[in-house]
């Protein structure tokens, strides 16, 4: 068995173009003996999610991958697009125009089931930014506009061009429009191969028809190869598909021209009733869930009495039996033979070239400016990203200002100043966690666009930093100026500026830290919990709750307090306020206490270095976090294919030792197995010890 592990080398956003080449400008996709296995620990059965599937997709045609829920539609699509999850292994070949090709970042246009879009942008803005990110930079404004307008018309989005997409607080476009927009974004660069995962899910029949009709036009007009999984299409929608790959339990029930499926079912003795939707009929025949439901209904005596009425194979046999029979019949059918011949032809065509099909042709600078603008507009329009926090920051600053108003320099003011500084550095910075959900939304967009090769990791990180800077500056400067002037900390412009910069860098450090957390945790709930825990630890070791020299030396003092941005920020803030001031002694008549003395004796702060070094340390920590974020994202991309390859080889080596690990292809080769072997019959959940 040949192993093809898809998804590998990274070339940030570069690459090529729309023509694809081959087959007169189109792309032929072939998959042979595709098997996807979910290996389990040795004492549990191994699951074959897909079992030796073979097929092909051709230019100007649209193929439906159909089957009951859990039959493996998405898995097949992901296998073809090189997007399989890390815990499964895939064997078999995926060929593009007769050549094995790694479908890495940017190689494939893939529309996922979930519409991942920036809700704060309008339809036209979304398409325009996407066009600027990916189309060549030398296009004139009017050329770019023509492409955008053309895509809007192609996907029938004229009516909602200037409507916002919508999010939690903005009413937006409909589900069907969102889906068409997601497709529009992928066809902008005219990819020759387009994958879609259930593009009609959640849509009414009219919207579903519109979407599939648009896809059909995309395939026809641009000689594009369109492969789409679909759940249960209406008869009108079903009629729009040229080819059909019918799956059940990970096995091929039918593959060929969609209209021939009716003939196949008829030949197999289960003809589709004349007034019935063919796709409903096919799915009724192969959906084993009906067996379970019937058994339950019979058990609870809620089923109508059908004893004696056994006039069709459907009413007399179990679905599992019918499915097994269809799988078996298909293997020896003329449809399978035709498919084998065609696969052979396509696989041996010589001289076809396949370029990268997705990716970006825009320059790095163009990508940076476009992403920065888009991100800035999103931050401006998303109330939850910064505005809400800015409001809360100002309100809390006023509270701090009134509680610690005109704090003075008497003996008790020393500790109050320390407490006030500690609160500002601690609580105010802690509130930065509030922007995490919005950032996670932006990360989702990044992942989608990155997988489709729109731009690189570095551009994303830099653009996010630049676009957030004005908000961070506004937030920290307003907070610092309000508290500074109400509390009346150390007077002077430089002191005020330092306080503003200190808070700005501290908040930027927390944001950068949250980015790192977002890169490693799978969802925002976990991110917030982990982030809150992390910031809590940073607060604890910042030198306010426990003085720095008193922290346990091993671990907490060295290294934690040294890599803690809050400890440097707090030291800087205390120095900024106290150095140069004099405080009253506890008893009248005693000499005044210099701020330096209080810093070293009461607050445990060393005066070995200036406050500016403290600020520089926070800056260095921010840069380290951003670099770490970059490294994690890059590592995840680079290491994944390597880990997958090693995992696949090791697991296969292990599985091959198991006597019952058999492979059964619907297009039997020399290694053909009997159709009713254990694995072929039981399909998806077949135990393969
Ligand atoms: N990475 C994975 N880990 C564990 N199980 C998986 C994985 N991928 C797929 N499966 C399982 O394989 C089966 C097929 O999943 P898949 O998502 O391909 O089905 P589907 O036909 O697309 O279903 P639906 O129509 O409900 O989306 C399911 O039982 C699913 O739980």
TrEMBL record:
GO biological process: any one? response to salt stress
Q: Which GO terms describe its molecular function?
A: ABC-type transporter activity; ATP binding; ATP hydrolysis activity
* Alphabetized Pfam families for the sequence: ABC2_membrane (PF01061), ABC2_membrane_7 (PF19055), ABC_tran (PF00005)
For the region Disordered, give the residue spans: 658-689
The cross-references to InterPro entries, in alphabetical order and at most eight, read: AAA+_ATPase, ABC2_TM, ABC_transporter-like_ATP-bd, ABC_transporter-like_CS, ABCG_dom, P-loop_NTPase, Plant_ABCG
Q: Which CDD domains match?
A: ABCG_EPDR
Protein origin, superkingdom: Eukaryota
* Extent of Polar residues compositional bias: 676-689
Q: Where found?
A: Membrane
Under which name does UniProt file this protein? ABC transporter domain-containing protein
């Amino acid at each position: 068995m040949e192993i093809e592990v898809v998804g590998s080398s990274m070339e940030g956003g570069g690459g090529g173009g729309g023509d694809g080449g081959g087959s007169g400008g189109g792309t032929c996709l072939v998959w042979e003996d595709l098997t996807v296995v979910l290996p389990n620990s040795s004492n549990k059965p191994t699951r074959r999610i897909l079992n030796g599937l073979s097929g092909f997709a051709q230019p100007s045609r649209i193929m439906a991958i159909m089957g009951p829920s859990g039959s493996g539609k998405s898995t097949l699509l992901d296998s073809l697009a090189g997007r399989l999850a890390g815990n499964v292994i895939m064997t078999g070949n995926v060929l593009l125009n007769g050549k094995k090709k790694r479908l890495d970042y940017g190689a494939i246009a893939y529309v996922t089931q979930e519409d991942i879009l920036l809700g704060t942008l309008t339809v036209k803005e979304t398409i325009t930014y996407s066009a600027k990110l990916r189309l060549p930079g030398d296009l004139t404004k009017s050329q770019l506009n023509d492409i955008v307008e053309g895509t809007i018309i192609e996907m029938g989005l004229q009516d909602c061009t200037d409507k916002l997409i919508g999010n939690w607080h903005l009413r937006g476009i409909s589900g069907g429009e969102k889906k068409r927009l997601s497709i529009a974004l992928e066809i902008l660069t005219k990819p020759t191969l387009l994958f879609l995962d259930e593009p009609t899910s959640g849509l009414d029949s009219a919207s579903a028809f519109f979407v599939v009709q648009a896809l059909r036009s995309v395939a026809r007009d641009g000689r594009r190869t369109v492969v789409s999984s679909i759940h249960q299409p209406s008869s009108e929608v079903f009629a729009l598909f040229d080819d059909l790959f019918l799956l059940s339990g990970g096995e091929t029930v039918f593959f060929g021209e969609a209209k021939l499926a009716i003939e196949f079912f008829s030949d197999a003795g289960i003809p589709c009733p004349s007034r019935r939707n063919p796709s409903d009929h096919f799915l009724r025949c192969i959906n084993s869930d009906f067996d379970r439901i019937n058994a339950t209904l019979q058990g609870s005596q809620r089923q109508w009495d059908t004893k004696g009425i056994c006039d069709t194979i459907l009413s007399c046999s179990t679905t599992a039996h019918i499915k097994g029979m269809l799988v078996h019949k298909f293997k020896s059918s003329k449809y399978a033979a035709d498919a084998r011949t065609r696969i052979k032809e396509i696989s041996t065509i010589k001289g076809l070239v396949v370029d990268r099909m997705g990716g970006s042709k825009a320059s790095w600078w163009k990508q940076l400016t476009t992403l920065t603008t888009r991100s800035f507009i999103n931050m401006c329009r998303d109330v939850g990203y910064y505005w809400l926090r800015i409001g809360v920051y100002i309100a809390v600053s006023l509270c701090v200002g009134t509680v610690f108003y005109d704090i003075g320099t008497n003996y008790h003011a020393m500790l109050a100043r320390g407490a006030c500084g500690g609160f500002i550095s601690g609580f105010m910075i802690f509130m930065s966690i509030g922007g995490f959900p919005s950032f996670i939304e932006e990360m989702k967009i990044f992942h989608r666009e990155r997988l489709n090769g729109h731009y690189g990791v570095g551009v994303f990180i830099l653009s996010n930093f630049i676009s957030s800077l004005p908000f961070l500056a506004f937030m920290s400067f307003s907070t610092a100026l309000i508290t500074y002037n109400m509390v009346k900390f150390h007077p002077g412009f430089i002191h005020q500026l330092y306080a503003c910069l200190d808070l700005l860098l501290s908040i930027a450090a927390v944001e950068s830290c949250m980015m790192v957390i977002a890169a490693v945790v799978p969802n925002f709930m976990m991110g917030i919990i982990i982030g809150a825990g992390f910031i809590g630890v940073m607060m604890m070791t910042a030198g306010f709750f426990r003085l720095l020299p008193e922290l346990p030396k091993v671990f907490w003092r060295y290294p934690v307090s040294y890599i803690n941005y809050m400890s440097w920020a707090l030291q800087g803030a205390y120095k900024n306020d106290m150095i140069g001031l004099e405080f009253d002694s506890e008893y009248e008549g005693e000499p005044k206490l210099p701020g330096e003395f209080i810093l070293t004796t009461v607050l445990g702060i060393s005066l070995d270095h200036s406050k500016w070094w403290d600020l520089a340390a926070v800056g260095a920590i921010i840069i380290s976090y951003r670099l770490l974020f970059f490294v994690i994202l890059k590592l995840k991309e680079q290491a994944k294919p390597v880990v997958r390859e090693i995992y696949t080889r090791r697991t296969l080596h292990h599985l091959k030792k198991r006597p019952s690990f058999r492979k059964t292809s619907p297009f039997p080769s020399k290694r053909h197995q009997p159709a009713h072997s254990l694995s072929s019959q039981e399909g998806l959940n077949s135990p393969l010890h």
